[in-house]
């Protein structure tokens, strides 16, 4: 297995990326390799700084860097030798099993659509977030930022692909799918939410359990939480802030600790022909290490292959 990482992407790159990769490599089986993509001399100097002596980290040179504030489409077309562009080329050519990055999120999303492309039949690929549950484990929430506005048919499809993703990632035989709404009753919510509810309810391929309110997000009422990217992003970032608030107030709690963005480290883009994971721009070395652990799980799950089969 080859896990590709954009070594130059992120607010604390390349230092945090290289340190996280070195820490992850020490805990990976010998047949799993990390491929760091970026400026070779910079990466090699940092590998030396963090005393890396093993043979599970490879370096692929990339001369250019897509900066955080750049326009995604323009940056990728104008910088074909950037670490993101080269990473996606390697993924498309099957030289990587997954490509991960903490850099420009838009460029990562556009790069996936331009290179490995959306799975045939997918209306809109989505970003999946992992939501900790009080009883243990995680639910998956989609979308958490790729699609701010969603038609009912898109939300219905999120239910289908989210269900397959949860099934493959967490070995849940029949994942429970819920629609995020402002009330549990069927007639609640916007026109879009009401139409999506009916489509999800009528879809025999999923186990739809109805609407879910924001207060139920951590209560193990669903394995898949369906929402548009605007709502999902707001909810996800609110949940992550609980950890920061608790820390500021001197509160330590095992469950709240799971809301620390570092605990998972990354979010998957699903609905594309390959494995892609994006991380927070502020990612620390711990976050990168944990992202690599989840990246391995994603590759082993073969979720995108199963999604493609289901839609064929």
UniProtKB/TrEMBL annotation:
Task: Spell out the reaction equation it catalyses.
Answer: a fatty acyl-[ACP] + phosphate = an acyl phosphate + holo-[ACP]
Instruction: Give compartment(s).
Output: Cytoplasm
What family does this chain come from, according to its entry? Belongs to the PlsX family.
Superkingdom field? Bacteria
NCBIfam families according to UniProt: plsX
Q: Where is the signal peptide?
A: none
Q: Which GO terms describe its biological process?
A: fatty acid biosynthetic process; phospholipid biosynthetic process
Assembly mode: Homodimer. Probably interacts with PlsY.
- For this UniProt entry, what is the primary localization, expressed as one broad class? cytoplasm
This protein's pathway reads:
Lipid metabolism; phospholipid metabolism
Q: Which GO terms describe its cellular component?
A: cytoplasm
Write down what this protein is called. Answer: Phosphate acyltransferase
The protein's job, in short, is: Catalyzes the reversible formation of acyl-phosphate (acyl-PO(4)) from acyl-[acyl-carrier-protein] (acyl-ACP). This enzyme utilizes acyl-ACP as fatty acyl donor, but not acyl-CoA.
InterPro entries, alphabetized = FA_synthesis, Phospholipid_synth_PlsX-like
The answer to whether the entry has keyword Lipid metabolism is yes
């Amino acid at each position: 297995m080859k896990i590709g990482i954009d070594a130059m992407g992120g607010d604390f790159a390349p230092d945090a990326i290289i340190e996280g990769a070195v820490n992850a490599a020490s805990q990976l089986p010998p047949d799993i390799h990390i491929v760091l993509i970026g400026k070779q001399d910079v990466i090699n100097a940092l590998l030396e700084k963090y005393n890396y002596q093993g043979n599970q980290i490879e370096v692929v040179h990339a001369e250019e860097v897509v900066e955080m504030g750049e326009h995604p489409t323009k940056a990728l077309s104008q910088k074909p030798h950037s670490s993101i562009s080269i990473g996606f080329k390697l993924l498309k050519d099957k030289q990587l099993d997954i490509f991960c990055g903490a850099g420009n999120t838009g460029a990562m999303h556009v790069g996936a659509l331009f290179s490995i492309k959306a799975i045939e039949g997918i209306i809109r690929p989505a970003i999946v977030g992992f939501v900790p549950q009080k009883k243990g484990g995680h639910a998956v929430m989609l979308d958490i930022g790729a699609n701010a506005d969603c038609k009912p048919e898109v939300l219905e499809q999120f239910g289908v692909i989210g269900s397959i993703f949860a099934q493959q990632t967490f070995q849940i035989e029949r994942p429970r799918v819920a629609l995020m709404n402002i009330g549990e009753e069927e007639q609640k919510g916007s026109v879009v939410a009401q139409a999506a509810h009916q489509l999800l309810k009528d879809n025999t391929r999923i186990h739809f359990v109805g609407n879910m309110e924001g207060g139920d997000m951590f209560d193990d009422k669903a394995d898949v939480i369906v929402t548009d990217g605007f709502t999902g992003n707001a909810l996800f970032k609110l949940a992550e802030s609980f950890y920061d608030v608790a820390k500021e107030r001197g509160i330590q709690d095992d469950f709240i600790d799971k809301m620390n963005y570092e605990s998972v480290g990354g979010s998957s883009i699903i609905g594309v022909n390959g494995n892609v994971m994006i991380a927070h721009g502020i990612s620390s070395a711990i976050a990168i290490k944990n992202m690599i652990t989840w990246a391995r799980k994603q590759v082993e799950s073969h979720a995108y292959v199963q999604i493609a089969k289901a839609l064929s």
